[in-house]
Design goal:
This protein has 637 residues and is an alpha/beta fold. The strands form 4 sheets. A 6-stranded parallel beta sheet has the order 6-5-4-7-8-9. It has a 6-stranded parallel beta sheet with strand order 13-12-11-14-15-16, sandwiched between helices. Helix 15 (340-344) links the parallel strand 7 and strand 8 (351-354). The model has no long low-confidence stretch (mean pLDDT 97). The structure holds FE(4)-NI(1)-S(5) cluster. Residues 297-298, 315, 335-336, 448-449, 478-479, 529, 564, 566-567 line the site of FE(4)-NI(1)-S(5) cluster (NFS).
Length: 637
């Protein structure tokens, strides 16, 4: 249950609940209540429905059968269920990455004329990573070779050669460890398929062998995410610090409001461009402030990072923007989009528009997006928004006047650039020095989702404030970033209010040297969920600078509200790369003592990382801080 019955820390949620009641719409929170009590077997991960002899369920307390019909015990069942989730997460992230890589290829071949490569430097950096020489080649030629080399991570058949986007992005010592453990993927798709094959009825029954395959798939997830982020930067620009706003107050009564929801920047970038181009049409329709693009979920993070587009909200409250009655179109692509939006749009004038063949929603209109005709699709969509605006019912408009300032755009490159203000020759040195002298105790990356199982955003905010007080540098992506953005923690004022003295001094010194009027924000917004790899690139740079592996750094991760299979995959690669990783929601594995022990304990011997499961945010902060302290001790600092 949610703490003290409070469903969200976001006051907009409370403000709009009566509107949902009025239009007769059940929100995610209502639907969660209707599900209670949830199935105890499912929560423990002990229900197997992989074949039609089932569903079989094993009571781990020994009360009832101890095996499924095929003879699978609880450890086999839990491990299979878990790694199927990891495979799904890896498939989702890497499909996103594949789209970006294929688009890069299409651009280089002249089949996607609307796109340009906005950040050539980033393309050159990508070329270096995938071993493409740039000497004497045109940008197009380089783009083509980079895209092809990247797509090999989806097609390589030689199992002895690891995915290049993994191999070249972690410290050499980590790579050796991963290869030795046999968990370095050679081909993202093959590894995902392997999980489906080995979990088919009557195949792998050894829980540890299954979990090792899960680690490999998690690293395939990492690979897909890494290449997605880097190539997106080449296409659309590497984020730089930008100031914008978050929460429903960013919706404008006198504008055509178009929400972009989902994940992939391939279309949303064009929606932003076209919004500027078609402003006059909106004004002519009566929208005096033109077209206002707002972000939801991780597409929101993508366009916030690169263009300063304001964020309306994060995952769990994605039904709220429509409930304001002032969103004229919501455009979605893939992942984390609630199917309920199809029903909700019936209550308002909003056009819900799906754009990808792999994601259609009953009730939505479908305008299929193709890279070859990106701008044309974007124009069609924006015009649908303008038409819908004309049908907007002013009597139904109810926009909560709440929003917070957000300073975002902290890519690894942007952080390095800020540090150059302190040491132009060796920008990482001031960061390392401040970690070594203890002014910065360590680093925590907040990632992952929202869930109805806890009070929305609360654990993020509580843990962050606790750790900031103890001088821990805070990074965030995805819905965690959304939580902090809405709560006003991505501001210099938050640093003034909540950072411990030495952390505040460092953030102020960096901020001033970078030409800001004050400190860097308390929590640095590193982007969307796929951008978690930005934090790894920073950690790898730090590890290489100090000359240690990732599992020696005082760097931890926290996913206080994880729920999606993507989050399961991310959490698993975080521990595989060596980071202590906190989950604030009990993972569905407790039915197996073997799986639980491997994840929270034994894995440490193989990768150096481990899961910390703690649902109480204050206790979680203490455990994360202890993990940081322990790492410092081991490093002798
Ligand atoms: Ni990532 Fe969770 Fe989804 Fe983004 Fe949010 S729910 S796993 S943070 S929007 S992907």
């Amino acid at each position: 249950m949610t703490e003290k019955g409070k469903i969200s820390c976001d006051e907009c949620v409370n403000e709009l609940m009566p509107v949902a009641r009025k239009v007769g719409f059940d929100t995610a929170w209502d639907r969660y209540e209707a599900q209670l009590p949830q199935c105890g077997f499912g929560l423990l991960g002990v229900c197997c429905k992989l074949c039609w002899k089932g569903p079989c369920r094993v009571n781990p307390l020994g009360d009832g059968p101890d095996r499924g019909v095929c003879g699978a015990d609880v450890h086999t069942i839990v491990a299979r269920n878990l790694i199927r989730g990891i495979a799904a997460g890896a498939a989702a992230h890497s499909d996103h990455g594949r789209h970006i890589a294929k688009t890069l290829l299409e651009i280089s071949e002249g089949h996607a004329p609307d796109y340009t490569i906005k950040d050539e430097n980033k393309l050159y950096k990508a070329a270096e990573k995938v071993n493409v020489s740039v000497q004497g080649k045109s940008v197009n030629q380089i783009a083509k070779e980079v895209a092809k080399a990247t797509l090999e991570d989806f097609s390589r058949q030689d199992e002895g050669i690891p995915c290049v986007w993994l191999d070249k992005t972690v410290p050499a010592s980590r790579m050796e460890k991963l290869s030795r453990a046999g968990v370095a993927p050679h081909n993202i798709d093959a590894v995902v398929a392997d999980i489906m094959a080995r979990t088919h009825v009557g195949t792998d029954a050894d829980p540890v062998n299954l979990l090792l395959a899960g680690l490999k798939a998690a690293l395939a997830d990492y690979t897909g995410m890494y290449l997605a982020t880097e190539l997106s930067d080449a296409l659309f620009g590497t984020p730089q610090p930008v100031v914008t706003a978050a929460n429903l107050g960013v919706i404008k009564e006198n504008a055509v409001n178009i929400a972009v929801n989902g994940h992939n920047p391939l279309l949303s970038e064009f929606i932003c461009d076209v919004a500027l181009e078609l402003k006059d049409e909106a004004v002519k329709a009566g929208a005096t402030e033109g077209i206002n693009i707002i972000g939801v979920c991780c597409t929101g993070n993508e366009v916030l990072m690169r263009r300063g587009i304001p964020t309306a909200t994060n995952y769990l409250s994605q039904e709220l923007p429509m409930l304001t009655g002032a969103v004229d179109a919501m455009v979605v692509d893939v992942q984390c989009i609630m199917p309920s939006l199809g029903k909700l749009q019936e209550c308002f004038h909003t056009e819900l528009i799906t754009t990808m063949n792999s994601c259609k929603i009953p009730g939505a209109k479908h305008i299929e997006f193709h890279a070859a005709t990106a701008a044309e699709s974007a124009r069609k969509i924006v015009r649908m928004g303008i038409e819908a605006y004309k049908r907007r019912d002013p009597g139904k408009v109810n926009i909560p006047q709440r929003s917070s300032t957000v300073a975002g755009g902290f890519s690894a490159e942007a952080i390095i650039t800020a540090l150059e203000g302190l040491d132009a020759q060796d920008p990482l040195k001031p960061l390392v020095d401040n970690i070594v002298n203890g002014n910065i105790q360590g680093v925590t990356l907040f990632a992952g989702c929202n869930t109805t199982k806890v009070t929305q955003d609360m654990a993020y905010i509580t843990i962050a404030k606790e750790l900031a007080k103890k001088n821990v540098l805070l990074l965030a992506t995805g819905c965690g970033a959304g939580a902090f953005a809405k709560a006003g923690l991505m501001t210099m004022e938050a640093t003034e209010s909540f950072a411990g003295e030495s952390l505040k001094a460092v953030l102020t010194a960096i901020g001033k040297a970078a030409g800001l009027s004050g400190p860097l924000p308390l929590v640095l917004h590193m982007g969307s969920c796929v951008d978690n790899t930005r934090a790894v690139s920073l950690a790898t740079a730090l590890a290489n600078k100090i000359g240690v592996d990732l599992d020696k750094l005082p760097v931890v991760a926290s996913a206080p509200e994880c729920m999606s299979e993507k989050a399961v995959a991310i959490g698993t690669w975080a521990v595989t790369l060596g980071f202590p990783t906190h989950l604030g929601v009990v993972p569905q594995v407790l039915g197996s003592s073997v799986v639980t022990d491997v994840l929270t304990n034994k894995l440490k011997d193989i990768t150096g990382g481990y899961f910390i499961v703690e649902t109480d945010p204050t206790a979680a902060a203490a455990k994360l801080y202890n993990a940081i302290k322990q790492r410092r001790q081991e490093l002798g600092i």
